[in-house]
């Protein structure tokens, strides 16, 4: 019986003991047959440092002491008379031999290591927040062309709006704050991706040609009659369609966020001030000058600008929906009259016949990631073709920089030539076949095999047709707490579109310039039949909102990207994806690095950053027979030692949102602001 009690007391020792259990277990267990002196433990209430006189020699103490098993249920120290242990307020062996003092508690080591690691990570994140370019969000990310509109998107998310709600409000805000890039009188394309369901929708609201538009009219008068350049705007229809599918807040409430910006006013951005100074519409109307040049010259950046006219338009659209824009009301009549007064042929019927398209994006797999991009008439298939070709090259740190840049440049030449063969598939069934070829890994392998590692192709591998595209565009990229990704790019085509503005303040687009027709300019390549002018047709587009996600499972890297600059946008997106997915560069570094663009129409290779140069010449000049031309912000040219002329061009402005899913709490967003920074430093 005594033995059973002894065993039960021993097993209960780990549950609770008024004596430090860790100190007891660190001692060596003594033989049971050694005599144990009787020395009762006294209460912890005593304030003595030592309760009794301890043995100063730990060895003699251990030999004379027998560890008595203490009843774990006892709470009274005085009841444990049989123990030779005496309570201390410190380790009685702290001054003992170094062997004892060097013993470490394993838990302490683990805790210390964890705290050190956590501190390091925290410091790194804080430094990234305060000193890095990316914006860091915890519940969702919003990146746009204007800080004011980014704030609008964040505000919508904070009011429990969906990611699409935030995108709609931010896009309408950009039409107010950045009217040179986007607006109600333009169009665009939105890609929406549901992360958890792995489903995507493409809302295409690209402008369409008026029913009475003819190629001959554009050939004769496109430079003198800006009304001919106006396509049927798709912005309102497209945003409303997206809201109907994915909106959470009422339509009127979403539009009210943007209307408040127009009514209260905003500080003019550097981009807008520069566009007014350098790229005003060639035939600016009196109404345009009154709106944007009230003092006769461009306002300075930071000047307050209010647009109560657009606030009123948004209020009407919020109340009556898209019908107020397309169904023959005052807004429709104003747009038709403005375009026709400037030589256009657009009619009320064109507005009533317009519809946004709901489609599936094209997709490809690149290094374990699914890449989603718009289908024709957009050039998403050419983007995926470029990635498919590059995937087969050994683009690692072991490859020379010159070789890697050569592969990239040659690949982009092929991708851009392929893009020139695209157009509206509704009007040409061969475009669907071309799209399928561009998405094929087999076709990519063929083109890869045609690229010589040591020299450029003496003649183009493919016929090159005329490539046109909107030089300016506005972008909205959102990853919201609802696990949706939204990437949207919209445009008026060239800055301020056609330059025509209605009495209600709506700027009309010039998207008909994106069609191809004969004898447009003396140096243009052959016109593209796939992108010829036809009534109701949508022109070729380089608006490329793109989403990247893991090809399998949920966990991994998610990207949302956008670009402007027409064909240069395709080149830029390809290289940013290459930096992130192949070379594993971080967000800021991927955007900050220079990019190449082969201009097929002029046989010039454009380079936008200093870091692509070796000495005074581009890094790839040793194997590139074209003239290396990088049009600079200043007019100076550098003369290279091997007969190439170089200078610098405007960077391919891009935006980027990255999220590593299943690593909670942090989403990164960034905008490539190199161009803005250079201008501000002048």
UniProtKB/TrEMBL annotation:
Subcellular location: Membrane
Residues reported to bind L-glutamate: 206, 491-493, 514, 566
Phosphoprotein as UniProt keyword: yes
Alphabetical list of Pfam families matching this protein: G_glu_transpept
GO aspect biological process, one term: glutathione catabolic process
Keyword match Secreted: no
EC numbers, comma separated: 2.3.2.2, 3.4.19.13
Pathway connected to this protein: Sulfur metabolism; glutathione metabolism
Region of interest (Disordered), residue spans: 26-92
Keywords per UniProt: Acyltransferase, Glutathione biosynthesis, Glycoprotein, Hydrolase, Membrane, Phosphoprotein, Signal-anchor, Transferase, Transmembrane, Transmembrane helix, Zymogen
Catalytic activity, reaction form: an S-substituted glutathione + H2O = an S-substituted L-cysteinylglycine + L-glutamate; glutathione + H2O = L-cysteinylglycine + L-glutamate; an N-terminal (5-L-glutamyl)-[peptide] + an alpha-amino acid = 5-L-glutamyl amino acid + an N-terminal L-alpha-aminoacyl-[peptide]
Ranges of Low complexity composition bias in the record: 72-83
Annotated GO MF terms: glutathione hydrolase activity; leukotriene C4 gamma-glutamyl transferase activity
Protein's membrane topology: Single-pass type II membrane protein
Gene Ontology cellular component list: plasma membrane
UniProt cross-references to SUPFAM superfamilies, sorted A to Z: N-terminal nucleophile aminohydrolases (Ntn hydrolases)
Function comment: Hydrolyzes and transfers gamma-glutamyl moieties from glutathione and other gamma-glutamyl compounds to acceptors. Cleaves the gamma-glutamyl peptide bond of glutathione and glutathione conjugates.
Family from the record: Belongs to the gamma-glutamyltransferase family.
Quaternary organization: Heterodimer composed of the light and heavy chains. The active site is located in the light chain.
Name of the protein in its database record: Glutathione hydrolase
Taxonomic classification: Eukaryota, Metazoa, Chordata, Craniata, Vertebrata
């Amino acid at each position: 019986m005594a033995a059973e009690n002894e065993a039960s007391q021993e097993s209960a020792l780990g549950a609770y003991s008024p004596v430090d259990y860790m100190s007891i277990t660190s001692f060596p267990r003594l033989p049971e047959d050694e005599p144990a002196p009787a020395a009762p433990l006294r209460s912890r209430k005593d304030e003595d440092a030592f309760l009794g006189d301890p043995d100063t020699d730990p060895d003699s103490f251990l030999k004379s002491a027998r560890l008595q098993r203490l009843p774990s249920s006892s709470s009274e120290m005085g009841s444990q008379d049989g123990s030779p242990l005496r309570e201390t307020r410190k380790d009685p062996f702290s001054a003992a031999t170094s062997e004892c003092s060097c013993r470490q508690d394993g838990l302490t080591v683990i805790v210390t290591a964890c705290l050190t690691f956590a501190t390091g990570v925290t410091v790194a994140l804080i430094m990234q927040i305060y000193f890095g370019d990316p914006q860091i969000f915890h519940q969702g990310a919003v990146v746009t062309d204007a800080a004011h509109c980014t704030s609008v998107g964040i505000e919508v998310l904070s009011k429990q709006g969906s990611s699409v709600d935030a995108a709609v409000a931010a896009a309408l805000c950009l039409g107010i704050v950045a009217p040179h890039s986007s607006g109600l009188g333009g169009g665009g394309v939105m890609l929406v991706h549901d992360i958890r369901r792995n489903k995507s929708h493409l809302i295409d609201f690209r402008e369409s040609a008026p029913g009475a538009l003819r190629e001959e009219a554009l050939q004769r008068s496109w430079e003198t009659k800006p009304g001919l350049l106006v396509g049927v705007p798709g912005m309102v229809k497209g945003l409303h369609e997206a809201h109907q599918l994915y909106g959470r807040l009422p339509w009127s409430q979403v539009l009210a966020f943007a209307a408040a910006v127009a009514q209260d006013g905003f500080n003019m951005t550097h981009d807008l001030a520069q566009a007014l100074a350098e790229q005003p519409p060639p035939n600016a109307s009196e109404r345009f000058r009154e709106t944007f040049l009230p003092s006769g010259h461009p306002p300075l950046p930071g000047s307050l600008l209010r647009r109560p006219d657009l606030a009123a338009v948004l209020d009407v659209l919020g109340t009556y929906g898209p019908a107020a824009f397309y169904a023959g009301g005052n807004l429709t009549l104003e747009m038709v009259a403005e375009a026709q007064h400037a030589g256009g042929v657009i009619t009320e019927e064109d507005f009533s016949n317009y519809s946004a398209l709901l489609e599936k994006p094209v997709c490809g797999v690149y290094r374990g990631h699914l890449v989603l991009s718009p289908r024709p008439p957009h050039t998403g298939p050419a983007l995926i073709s470029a990635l498919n070709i590059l995937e087969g090259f050994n683009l690692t740190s072991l490859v020379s920089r010159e070789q890697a840049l050569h592969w990239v440049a040659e690949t982009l030449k092929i991708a851009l030539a392929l893009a020139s063969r695209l157009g509206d598939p509704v009007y040409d069934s061969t475009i669907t076949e071309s799209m399928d070829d561009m998405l094929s890994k087999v076709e990519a392998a063929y083109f890869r095999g045609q690229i010589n590692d040591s020299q450029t192709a003496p003649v183009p591998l493919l016929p090159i047709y005329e490539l046109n595209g909107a030089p300016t565009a506005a972008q909205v990229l959102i990853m919201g707490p609802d696990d949706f990704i939204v990437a949207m790019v919209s445009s008026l085509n060239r800055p301020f579109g056609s330059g025509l503005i209605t009495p209600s303040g709506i700027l009309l687009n010039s998207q008909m310039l994106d069609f191809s027709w004969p004898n447009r300019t003396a140096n243009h390549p052959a016109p593209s039949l796939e992108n010829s002018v036809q009534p109701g047709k949508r022109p070729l587009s380089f608006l490329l909102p793109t989403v990247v996600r893991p090809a399998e499972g949920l966990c991994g890297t998610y990207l949302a990207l956008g670009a402007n600059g027409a064909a240069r946008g395709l080149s830029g997106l390809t290289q940013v994806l290459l930096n992130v997915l192949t070379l594993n560069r971080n967000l800021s570094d991927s955007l900050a690095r220079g990019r190449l663009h082969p201009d097929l129409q002029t046989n010039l290779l454009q380079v936008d950053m200093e870091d692509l140069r070796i000495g005074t010449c581009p890094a790839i000049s040793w194997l590139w027979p074209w003239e290396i031309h990088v049009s600079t912000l200043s007019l100076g040219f550098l003369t290279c030692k091997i007969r190439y002329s170089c200078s610098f061009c405007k960077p391919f402005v891009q935006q980027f949102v990255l999220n590593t899913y299943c690593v909670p709490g942090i989403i990164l967003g960034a905008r490539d602001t190199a161009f803005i920074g250079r201008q501000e430093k002048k």
